[in-house]
Design brief:
Elements (H helix, E strand, L loop, with lengths): L3 H19 L13 E6 L5 E7 L6 E4 L4 E3 L1 E4 L2 E3 L13 E3 L2 E6 L7 E3 L2 E2 L9 E5 L6 E2 L4 E2 L10 H9 L5 E4 L26 H9 L3 H4 L4 E3 L11 H8 L16 H4 L5 E4 L4 E6 L14 H16 L5 E6 L21 H10 L9 E6 L5 E6 L5 E5 L26 E7 L4 E6 L6 E6 L5 E8 L2 E6 L3
Parallel strand pairs: 11-14, 14-15, 17-18, 18-19, 19-21
Antiparallel strand pairs: 1-2, 2-8, 3-4, 3-9, 5-8, 6-7, 9-10, 11-23, 12-13, 16-17, 20-21, 20-22, 23-24, 24-25, 25-26
Helix pairs in contact: 7-8
Bound molecules: fe (ii) ion.
Length: about 475
């Protein structure tokens, strides 16, 4: 004879079974809530679903409405002690009070659900790409720079993400600098009052997972690593949450003695179409001055550039992505003479191998962030057109020149043929034109109004302003 308790438990178990049947979840797999569920596009055709949960076990994932399977743990919840030699003097331990879970997307699967949530699926065909960069809310004690994170106009990333999601992309590119809340908000700054700070999950949630939720739900993301995600800064969160490779202690940024490896990631390719691919380059540890050829960084970046050259042979067209630009126009005070921008550390490495073009053959477009403006620069010579797309939320640092003097060179011999720039916040889309190898870049305001269009074809970018 059953006791009352066991009868009640049997009833609960029965309800659980019925609920599990209704939600595609096996009673053997934990039905665990997730804070965030998103898809990271990795090398080649591979993609990985990630879920962040405050539970002690990973949630289940159901592929194409099939049986639910537990996701695998990527990184356990942990408290990372304050790293020695951190970027900010006001650092603290990093509390990662979520479990990072993951599951590799199986080939041929079209849909997936985690904890009742539809997961963004890799598309069979990429036609529209959303591009953002430099998105977090700047709180940096060493520069006394505190953005008004609580003000949706002064830190507009949530609106940018919502507007970008409304464009229904097939893929999202984030070209680095996701995390910005490094220092505590001073008592006299109401604009950032009560913001989380430091390198733990709460600041990642405030800078990325909450504001970007609609865009994370819209499509898989390619994440490019920025200097804010170097090991001395938010590198631990980078590897826990958004790096595309498997997590390992050796490349976790937990131990500063291993930064020499963890600060550099191997480049990889993501195919877009039969003839075009993205090449993703980790420039997070570069410097604003030229490297000596005997520097360890020079040698690591040289080896990675060689790998880029080999990857570029896989398709007729490659779009190179690094957070730091190589060919750009510097921000200058109004009335001052425009001058070349570009990261001198990367320039020293790339020019050693490709003195004029800077890039290997086959790279027809370079996409970057780091400078918090929009620039499209196209050259008379063989250099690939260069895009700077770092205006998606983090504090604007000035305006780019609107006009360049005739004959302006962004690099020795790199005379500019076509140039467009904008200093306001926004984001961009890249749309494939028909079935050709040509693309159309559109730059939008925060609310999603198109303001510039640039035809991207044969290594050139030609822009026109759109009338309001
Ligand atoms: Fe940056």
């Amino acid at each position: 004879m059953f006791s009352t308790t066991s009868t009640r438990l049997t009833g609960v178990a029965l309800v659980s079974l019925l609920l599990a049947a209704c939600t595609d979840f096996s009673p053997l797999a934990p039905d665990v809530r997730a804070d965030s569920v998103y898809t990271v596009q990795a090398q080649g055709q591979s993609a990985v679903v990630r879920a962040l949960t405050r539970a002690s076990v990973c949630p289940a994932i159901a592929w194409d409405g099939g049986a639910a399977l537990p996701m695998q743990q990527r990184a356990a919840a942990a408290v990372a002690p304050l790293r020695a030699g951190g970027a900010q003097s006001d650092g603290k331990e990093a509390v990662f009070n979520v479990l990072t879970c993951e599951a590799a997307w199986p080939a041929g699967v079209l849909r997936a659900r985690v904890a009742g949530v539809e997961v963004p699926a890799p598309r069979q065909e990429i036609r529209r790409i959303v591009i953002i960069a430099d998105t977090g809310c700047r709180m940096k004690g060493s520069e006394n720079a505190f953005q008004a994170c609580n003000d949706a106009e002064k830190w507009p990333f949530a609106q940018v993400a919502a507007s970008a999601a409304a464009k229904k992309p097939d893929l999202v590119l984030h070209i680095g600098d996701v995390h910005y809340r490094e220092s505590p908000c001073p008592a006299d700054k109401a604009g950032c009052a009560n913001s989380p700070w430091g390198y733990g999950y709460d600041a990642w949630q405030a800078d990325l997972f909450k504001p970007a939720a609609p865009l994370l739900a819209a499509a898989p993301w390619v994440f490019v690593r920025g200097n804010h995600e170097s090991c001395a800064r938010a590198g631990q969160g980078w590897f826990r949450f958004i790096d595309s490779q498997p997590w390992s202690e050796a490349r976790s940024c937990n131990d500063p003695a291993r930064d020499g490896d963890a600060d550099y990631s191997a480049p990889y390719a993501v195919p877009l179409t039969a003839d075009t691919q993205l090449l993703i380059f980790d420039s997070s540890k570069t410097a604003g001055v030229a490297f000596s050829s005997t520097d360890a960084a020079f040698q690591k970046y040289s080896a990675q550039l060689q790998a880029v050259g080999q990857l570029a042979q896989q398709k007729p067209n490659s779009f190179f992505m690094s957070h730091h630009p190589l060919l750009s126009v510097a921000l200058v005070k109004e009335g001052k003479k425009p001058k070349p921008g570009g990261n001198e550390g990367l320039q020293s490495v790339f020019s050693a191998r490709f003195p004029q073009r800077l890039f290997p053959d086959g790279i027809s477009l370079a996409l970057h962030g780091h400078v918090h403006v929009f620039e499209s620069i196209s050259f008379k010579g063989a250099q690939p057109a260069s895009l700077v797309l770092g205006n998606s939320g983090s504090a604007n640092e000035g305006k780019p020149p609107q006009v360049l003097p005739p004959g302006f060179q962004a690099w020795a011999g790199a005379e500019v043929e076509d140039y467009a720039a904008r200093g306001d916040y926004g984001f961009a889309t890249l749309d494939r034109v028909g079935h050709s190898a040509d693309w159309l870049l559109t730059e939008y305001t925060v609310s999603g109004v198109a303001v510039l269009e640039c035809a991207i074809a044969s290594g050139k970018s030609r822009c026109k302003k759109l009338s309001p």
